[in-house]
Design goal:
The structure is a single chain. It is built from 9 helices and 10 strands. The chain is an alpha/beta fold. It has one domain. The chain has a 5-stranded mixed beta sheet, with helices on both faces. The protein has a 3-stranded parallel beta sheet with strand order 5-6-7. A two-stranded antiparallel ribbon has the order 9-10. Helix 6 crosses helix 7. It is globular and about 50 Å long. The chain starts with 9 loop residues before the first strand and ends in an 11-residue tail after the last strand. The relative contact order is 0.18.
């Protein structure tokens, strides 16, 4: 893994702290000047609040005298929290990912390989064990077969009906073990032992297995390597939009006038 943008960049990183160990490893291996801020894990359960938090951090960055070449968002769509974001001055760069599973596995291809037959399969990682209140990441952040998130079903049909619809479309297969996505750069015997103890305690009868992760999407994001097929680059005064497929995932469109940005705040 040696891809690095040759131009020395000044970057702002806004990241979920589920990636804190991995992001810090990448920060220690980049020639670029990166100013990071980590947001607490768990806000994906309230996407509207997470969106407001991310927009506030983007706005704060645009008001600083210090100028960055780009604002990196180490997030996926996260239940539509990544939809409707705007930057007035500094371009945004966002991985094309529905949630952190894609990022932790390192590519959409690996996500399809691991989760394609069961997108509601529970998973965990070292970041979830250290930072999260729940051991497993499940349903709310995943997208529906018709392009709807769980949050969308709640808004349309109410909580009880949304649960029924989601469980019908995304039945949990008890014959498949939950996954612990393990990245070599942050894995240690001590960490794996803590993972085993907590996963077995919190998972009750559910079995779990270790799934190899890959740090490449985080590494590329922080090192300024942003191929169009894997990262969306959002120019100033463009707003992010959900696409809800497995490839493009997220898009952006221009806002006709600066005054319209105010209506999104």
């Amino acid at each position: 893994m040696n891809e690095i943008n040759e131009k020395r960049l000044k970057l702002k990183l806004i990241a979920c702290n589920v990636f804190q160990r991995e992001a810090c490893w990448c920060l220690s291996h980049t020639p670029h000047l990166v100013d990071p801020v980590f947001v607490e894990l768990g806000m994906h359960v309230n996407p509207s609040y997470l969106r407001e938090r991310l927009q506030a951090l983007i706005d704060a960055e645009n008001e600083q005298d210090i100028r960055h070449d780009a604002i990196l968002l180490l997030y996926g769509l996260c239940g539509n929290a990544g939809v409707g974001l705007v930057s007035r001055r500094t371009p945004l760069v966002i991985p094309r990912a529905h949630d952190c599973a894609t990022v932790l596995l390192g590519s959409v291809a690996r996500y399809e390989e691991v989760f394609g037959a069961n997108p509601s399969r529970p998973f965990s990682s070292l970041g979830y064990l250290e930072r999260g209140m729940e051991t497993y990441r499940t349903e709310g952040g995943f997208f529906g077969t018709m392009g709807d998130t769980y949050e969308t079903y709640v808004e349309r049909y109410g909580e009880d009906n949304a649960k029924f619809i989601w469980q019908t479309l995304h039945p949990v297969r008890e014959d498949e073990p939950a996954l612990f996505i393990d990245l070599p750069e942050t894995s240690t015997p001590e960490a794996m032992e803590r993972a085993r103890v907590r996963l077995e305690a919190d998972g009750a009868a559910r079995e779990w297995k270790k799934e190899p992760g890959n740090i490449r999407m985080i590494y590329q994001l922080i090192n300024g390597v942003w191929p169009e097929e894997e990262y969306l680059q959002v120019p100033p005064f463009h707003v992010t939009q959900g696409v809800y497929d497995l490839k493009q995932v997220i898009a952006a469109s221009a806002i006709p006038s600066a005054s319209e940005v105010c209506t999104l705040e």
